[in-house]
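Recall that a protein's primary structure is simply its ordered list of amino acids. Everything else, from secondary elements to tertiary packing, is in principle encoded there. The following example makes that idea concrete.
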Amino acid sequence: MKLHNELLTLRENEKQLTSAILEKLQIMGGQRLYLKLGYSSLFDYLVRGLDYSETMAYQRQSCLRLSKELPEIKEKLDEGKLTHSNISLAYKVIKNKSPEKKREVLKSIENKSFREAKKILAPMAPPVKVKQQVYQDKVILKVELSHEEHKKLNQLKALKSHKHNLESLFMSLVEQELKAYSKVDYKKSKSKNPRYISLKLRNSLLKKANYRCQYPGCEEVGQVTSEYTF
């Protein structure tokens, strides 16, 4: 079919353009030529100058950063073994790893769908970073999120936009979780498992222990151990 053949040709050209674009962007970023065009950063240039979405701009910037150390990435992008989305997903996990480890992780997600790559990389993902500054009258929390995590937060904020702004949304989620732990009424369990602890019983014990671990010397909050272990 003629249309099919035309699409195959365009697809091949598209893959060849991937590495060509990255090489040009490397020059643009390396020499900071975007400044002469009035853009504050390469990311700003990608979004406003080349009209990429923020997600696509982040993906390409991740590819650029990794390709400086692992130039073979461009070839694998052209071959379709890796995608921009999978590389950017891996970047936040491997950016501080050795070149050998980076190659190993990228090899594990070759020819994988985004969902498959996400499942492979999930155990390696760093926890969300939260910085806390305590003052006499307030506590300031600074949260570091990936672009994907920030996108999800914005989606939830949009769904709750008629009820909450970002600050009230955060407190609503906190109060919702605390409310789940406030239910301390419980009935005798009918489970045949002698080690089973119902959620309401667990909450009751947590409240009695002032939400602190009872193991001598432990300062953890929200744990039930030692005298309350069944």
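The first helix runs from residue 2 to 30. The longest strand covers residues 129-134.
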